[in-house]
Specification:
Elements lengths: L6 E6 L10 H9 L6 E6 L17 H14 L6 E7 L1 H15 L9 E7 L10 H7 L4 H6 L4 H15 L13 E6 L7 H5 L4 E5 L15 H19 L14 H11 L23 H12 L6 E5 L6 H14 L5 E6 L12 H5 L1 H13 L10 H10 L7 E8 L4 H11 L7 E6 L12 E5 L5 H14 L9 H11 L3 H14 L3 H15 L4 H15 L2 H12 L7 E2 H6 L6 H13 L4 E3 L4 E3 L2 H7 L11
Parallel strand pairs: 1-2, 1-3, 3-4, 4-5, 5-6, 7-10, 7-11, 8-9, 9-10
Antiparallel strand pairs: 12-14, 13-14
Helix pairs in contact: 2-3, 3-6, 10-11, 16-17, 16-18, 17-19, 18-20, 20-21
């Protein structure tokens, strides 16, 4: 969707380089239909490796900064929105240009610069091969400015930090412009510390000093980083456009605008969350109303900004929330969806402690959130501070939906919501927590609503048995209600147990009378809680189909990562080194068929249900379970 007011992206190369260094970026931008509002302009300047003639001199940073001013006037003068993008030394030139403009009391002219993106900028200098550079390139004033802690470069950097990054309003001597500084993950020319310096919006991208600006496809993270900033500029431009005749914000259909934002935001912002859910979408029954209720609370900006989806283990809190998130996302109400799983034992104890919430497991949740925001963490010890800064810098029209799954600790939802609030995730953003325990609604500062997931009624339990049985071609698909009554008596409508029974016996090829006899006997011996008996039966069946050792090794591997965690195939394979590939695939397939292992992310990750995790974990003594 092209805009009436296009955005000029001015690209500035680095030391000993040329404008063609931006070929990879410009080719990708030209092929991206979502960036058809972007006009790329490459700014070049002399930065030679050798001195070809004594009649020519190498321009200083100030010379190039003045040239950049003329370029922006001549080549980009008709653009109301400009984004400056630089590599390496180019970032120092941008900062020298900004300093000169402010010193000349021309700060108001900088308002049309909507964003500055610095790739691998040596804000405190580049130390690599310093002695060689001094020997071979001592005649080059640009090389002199690249030396660590150059006074002129440091002065320009301080000006940008104080009068650009931290500026509150545009004036002759200041102008607020967002600046993001990216470091290369394997860059040995410009260190991460030099690249980030005192900038607030920072990140690390794959690549060394040169490959960081050579994205090889639309999914390369360097390209996605720049693309996201350009779309944010476009969206902010559209949101603040003013009708000149009425002086009011330009009217438009809100839902249409939301749909546009949802469709054109960075790839993965509205779909990437699914790979973090540790589950595959499944067919749900008799929960349409609760899914609609949860989705409505997510979308409604006037509803409480936090929602706790609660209920006993196995009732399908995660599956229902997943379906509600899909529905809310389809409405266009959110620009980014994030899913984090509290995958730890600390979140499963009898009571919540400050230590548990502040532990490394809490940081795992934060790191998952940061990863889905595209935020690369320089220091894991200050992850909360970095997240808070990142969230505060989001454009005002951005709206996040954050789901924290598997909060099984008493009052964990309260404490997690409270901590997330401190990161800036209040209105208009939404927080959703799944937990066995309701959040405290008496605290007005939590601004939270509870939605409880209830067990299935008797008729729906029978429907679920038949649905599951049809999927695995089991005799239960044609059973009468009276024949299935023992299933409801034992499970009390718990969907997880219902499906486990149906799948386990369908795979075991038991006849219907034998199924009912075993269920009745189990109910008589164990009461209504048939869970352990079901696990024993399914785990024994897995051992028979493979071996006791193979079954044990596979299931215990999941306990090393904690509740709610999932493993990739490769990691899971490494945890089971004593079998060959064919044997391992067979064990994994059988565990899946028996309903013990749950695939997710299109069968690229695997996990186990939290109820099964609880059953296995206390028995990590070399045996799967007590006999």
């Amino acid at each position: 969707m092209a805009l009436d007011e296009p955005v000029a992206v001015v690209m500035i190369h680095g030391f000993l380089s040329k404008p063609k260094t931006w070929d990879s970026f410009t080719d990708l931008i030209a092929s991206d239909r979502h960036l058809d509002f972007v006009h790329v302009l490459r700014f070049g300047y002399a930065s030679p490796l050798v001195r070809l003639s004594r009649l020519r001199r190498v321009p200083t940073y100030k010379d190039v900064a003045l040239s950049l001013d003329g370029f922006l006037s001549d080549r980009a003068g008709n653009f109301k929105s400009v984004v400056l993008v630089s590599h390496s030394q180019g970032g120092l030139i941008i900062q020298r240009y900004l300093q000169w403009m402010l010193d000349e009391q021309r700060g108001n002219e900088l308002e049309r610069i909507r964003q500055i993106v610095l790739f691998a900028c040596p804000n405190t200098g580049a130390e690599i091969a310093l002695s060689l550079r001094r020997s071979w390139l001592g005649w080059n004033p640009q090389q002199v400015s690249l030396q660590p802690f150059n006074e002129e470069v440091s002065a320009a950097h301080r000006t940008v930090i104080n009068r650009i990054v931290h500026a509150r309003e545009a004036s002759s001597g200041s102008c607020p412009i967002p600046v993001v500084a990216y470091a290369g993950e394997t860059d040995n020319v410009v260190s991460p510390a030099a690249a980030r310096s005192a900038f607030r919006d920072i990140g690390v991208l794959p690549g060394d000093h040169f490959s960081i600006i050579r994205p090889d496809g639309l999914q390369h993270r360097s390209y996605l980083a720049l693309r996201g900033k350009l779309i944010a500029v476009r969206d902010a431009q559209g949101a603040t456009r003013v009708n000149e005749t009425t002086g009011t914000a330009e009217a438009g259909n809100v839902s249409t605008r939301r749909q546009s934002v949802a469709e054109e935001t960075a790839p993965g912002a509205l779909t990437g969350w699914k790979s973090y859910t540790n589950m595959m979408p499944e067919q749900l029954i008799n929960v349409e109303e609760v899914i609609d209720e949860i989705a409505s609370f997510m979308i409604d900006t006037s509803a409480p900004s936090a929602l706790a989806v609660t209920g006993a283990g196995g009732l399908g809190k995660t599956a229902v929330t997943y379906a509600a998130v899909e529905k809310a996302t389809a409405s266009g109400a959110f620009t980014t969806v994030i899913w984090a799983s509290a995958r730890n034992t600390d979140f499963s104890q009898v009571d919540a402690t400050a230590h548990a919430i502040s532990s490394i497991y809490w940081h795992n949740v934060l790191e998952t959130i940061a990863a889905q925001l595209g935020l690369d963490l320089f220091d894991k010890m200050i992850v909360e501070e970095q997240l808070r800064t990142h969230i505060s810098c989001l454009p005002p029209q951005h709206r996040l939906l954050l789901v924290v799954d598997n909060l099984e600790l008493v009052h964990a939802a309260d404490r997690v919501i409270e901590r997330l609030r401190a990161l800036g995730l209040g209105r208009p953003h939404k927080i959703v927590a799944t937990s066995r325990w309701e959040a405290t609604t008496s605290r007005s500062d939590l601004d939270v609503h509870n939605t409880r997931i209830k067990p299935l009624d008797e008729a729906t339990t029978y429907d679920l048995v038949r649905l599951t049985a049809r999927n695995i071609d089991s005799d239960l698909a044609h059973a009468r209600n009276e024949e299935l009554r023992p299933v409801y008596d034992i499970t009390q409508g718990n969907p997880f147990l219902v499906k486990l029974i149906s799948r386990r016996y369908g795979e075991a090829a038991r006849s219907l009378p034998r199924i009912i006899d075993e269920l009745t006997d189990a109910a008589r011996r164990t009461g209504n809680d048939v869970r352990h008996w079901l696990y024993d039966q399914s785990l024994d069946e897995l051992a028979l189909r493979t071996s006791a050792e193979q079954a044990s090794n596979l299931m215990l591997a999941f306990c090393t990562r904690g509740r709610g965690g999932s493993l990739t195939y490769d990691v899971l394979r490494e945890e089971n080194p004593d079998v060959d590939d064919e044997q391992f695939d067979h064990v994994l397939e059988q565990a899946h068929r028996l309903g013990l292992v749950q695939p997710s992310a299109r069968h690229t990750r695997y996990g186990i249900h939290s109820l099964l995790y609880e059953y296995i974990l206390p028995r990590q003594d070399g045996e799967l379970h007590e006999r």
